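Hey team,

Filing this mostly as a record. A colleague (T.K.) asked me to run one chain through the structure pipeline before their review meeting, and I want the input and output archived in the tracker in case anyone asks later how it was produced. No errors, nothing strange. Just documentation.

Input sequence:
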Amino acid sequence: MKLYKTTYIALFIFSAGFSSLKAQEVIPPEKIISSEIEVIRPYKPILAEAVKLRRSPDLDNLKTYKAKFSYSPTDRKLELNTDIQKLQAQQLADERAAILINNYVRGGFGNLSTFLAEGYVGIGKDEALQTGAFFKHFSQAGKLNKQNENKQQLSIFGRSIGDKATLNGRLNYERHGLFFYGIDELNPLLNQNPENQTLNFIELEGEIINRFSTDENALSYAAKANIYFFNDKFDAKEQLLSLSAYLNKRIRDFNIGLAAATEIGNTKGFNTKISNNLLRLNPYLKLQASGVKVTAGINFVQEFGESSITRMFPSITADFTLIPDFLQLFGEIKGDVNRNSLKNFTDENPFLNSNIHIKNSVEKLSISAGIKGTGGPGFGYKARFYSKKITDMPLFVNNFNKFNKFDVTYDFGDMKLFGLEGELSVQVSDNLKWTGKVNMEDYTPASEKESYFKPQLRISSNFLYIINKKLTFSADVAMQDDSKAKVYLANEIPPGSMVYPPKPNFNNEKVVNIKGFVDLGVGADYKINPKFAAFVKINNLLNTNYSKYLYYRLNGLNAFGGITYSF
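Output structure:
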């Protein structure tokens, strides 16, 4: 039995060794490396015995906190208020004061020796107290012989706005320098050395106006005083003192008032002296109700000085609102005496002769009526007709001996005038605006052949377009129909005669036609920054050599530009 066991064990060992020899490669000794065999088995952690920490508070060490209170009961009556309480508006923060730039100076140059200097200065920001000064100089030299002209203007003003009245004061000075450069195209050698003329005007004015009151029985008043002195280089002088006052008592829808004015002055030449004074009294009664305004009164005029005449005229105006803000119907019937003066004549025609005869014109009856209103935001219109009968209407005529100077004659008798007037204003937006005006007039002279230098058609228009905050474009146009002028063929004033002006003698005069014209002007302003701006202006863009008065051709194309500084 042992032998069996021994035999089997020996065979098992032998077979195992044989298999091992057969499967294992023989590795040289130098390639034998040591290796580590890691046996992996499930990990069984071993926890240490837990130790508990005592963190519970000590309940035996407690202190009780007792707050101290104090009571003060208020004895207040219980009110039951069911009214709606007024809401208190939240006060806004103070607005930052705007930086006002009201003052400016401007200068510019252009062709035709054009020079412009202009400035304005206002003192103080107080709205109740305003003072300021304005100055302007403009000069130009045309292409004709001595076609030079220059104008200066200086104005100083002040205004005080009180609780009950407003005070205004103003001092003006104007100077106009020019030459009698008129040229007769048929006789160009007649005026080779034109005479120089200088017109000076100084004016002082004061005014007081009461503040508006909402009281239905309020008393309104105003008073104004004006005095001026005028002279030229040829010893012509004129002084005028003008006083006017206004008083109005309101009684609900009615107004009772009185307007009074007086003009006292005289005009002197080197051998003439004329005094034509006026006193006006205009009592009236006015009804102002819803949509209706009617004023009825009498215009009492007393002439004194060279002649003493008393006249009375009606003074009636009416305004009816048919469609509020859209359509109004208005009318007027009145009469008056117009005081002619050397200052008014030279403002219209500066090429005036010496020793001008001055007399008043009487507007016997003037009737006008029309409509006005708006057609929506930015659109306004006005249209009216008028008819006048004027006695001794002044007219300009060329002097026989000095063709380039104008005398003043009067249309002896009652001249009749019928006219139509229309105005239109369109504002598409804040950046685009257009206005236009047209006048058509038909004159029926009393003793003259024509109403000289009175065109039958006049049109004016203005266009403004603000392209952006910096650039603005403008354009204007003036159109005028043909007019007539009178030329003397013989001297109608006998030597030594004191009768002037003479009545017309058609055998010694002829009528000359003056062509109409179209004057187109354009301009642009560019704002460089809040203080500096550039401008350019072009006049008579069509370059037409037209005339307003016989023998006086105006300048052609004129362009100038410059810089404006605001502060």
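Quick notes for T.K.: The radius of gyration is 50 Å. The mean pLDDT is 87.
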